[in-house]
Amino acid sequence: MKNSTFKKRALWFINTEIERVLLNLKSGAVNREHAMGSLNTLYHIASAMRDSDAMINLCKIIDRVRDTDERLGILHIPEISMKSYY
């Protein structure tokens, strides 16, 4: 498998998982700490690939999730994951 094909698939995986984690957080299937752990794992994958765009995107999302009030939930976070960074 070529390196560029691997990178495209890894970016697809990262973006898909971001969407899944945020939807699960929004629906209440996971709490904030579990979502932060999942997003941190995705950040480490992006870091290993040296993809600065994905790392910046994940930092922004992690910062927004961290700053939300646990009682208010994810409903007050704007839809930030729908942008594609391929």
Describe the structure in your own words:
By secondary structure, the chain is an all-alpha fold. The protein is built from 3 helices and no strands. The mean pLDDT is 83. It has one domain (3-74).
| Overall number of strands | 0
Report the portion of residues in β strands: under 5%
Element pattern in H and E: HHH
Largest sheet: none
Structural class: mainly alpha
Catalogue the unreliable spans. none
Q: What's the quaternary structure here?
A: single chain
Form type: elongated
Distance between the termini: 19 Å
- The helicity comes to 55-70%
Determine Rg (CA atoms, Å). 13 Å
Mean pLDDT: 83
Number of domains: 1
- Secondary structure tally, helices: 3
How would you sum up this structure in a few lines?
This protein has 86 residues and is mainly α. The protein has helices at residues 3-27, 32-49, 52-67. The model has no long low-confidence stretch (mean pLDDT 83).
